Amino acid sequence: MAQRLHLVFGGELVSPTKNAFKDVKAIHIVGMFPDYASAYTAWKAEAQRTVDDAHVRYFIAHLHRLRDEEQPASATEELGA
After folding, report:
1. DSSP string covering 41-66
2. For the stretch 33-42, what's the b/e string if a residue is b when 16 or more beta carbons lie within 10 angstroms of its beta carbon?
3. Which of 6, 44, 49, 54 has the most other CB atoms within 10 Å of its CB?
4. Domain ranges of the chain
């Protein structure tokens, strides 16, 4: 079975109505998780911890969707970059 990696991250947004971070260097990386359930648990904990700050938002990135193992590697991947 293929791994389904998920990244949980978040931080302060420019505006509560946008998904642009105020300072990209200050993004809080919560961690990488092997499945959606554990990523969701981590996301929920951070979201609840920061619930009083409307400018702070956390996200789950489905990293497994970024790479399709059936497709040939890109030129960059072939170079090992």
Report:
1. HHHHHHHHHTTT-TTEEEEEEEGGGG
2. beeeeebeeb
3. 6
4. 4-65
Q: What distance in Å separates the CA atoms of residue 8 and residue 80, rounded to the nearest whole number? A: 26
CA distance 59 to 67: 19
Looking up tokens 């260097």, which residue turns up? 25
Q: State residue 68's pLDDT score.
A: 61
Of 2, 6, 4, whose CA–CA distance to 58 is shortest? 6
Largest CA distance in the chain: 46
Per-residue pLDDT of the chain (81 residues; tens, 9 = 90+): 567 899 999 999 999 999 999 999 999 999 999 999 999 999 999 999 999 999 999 999 998 787 666 666 555 444 444
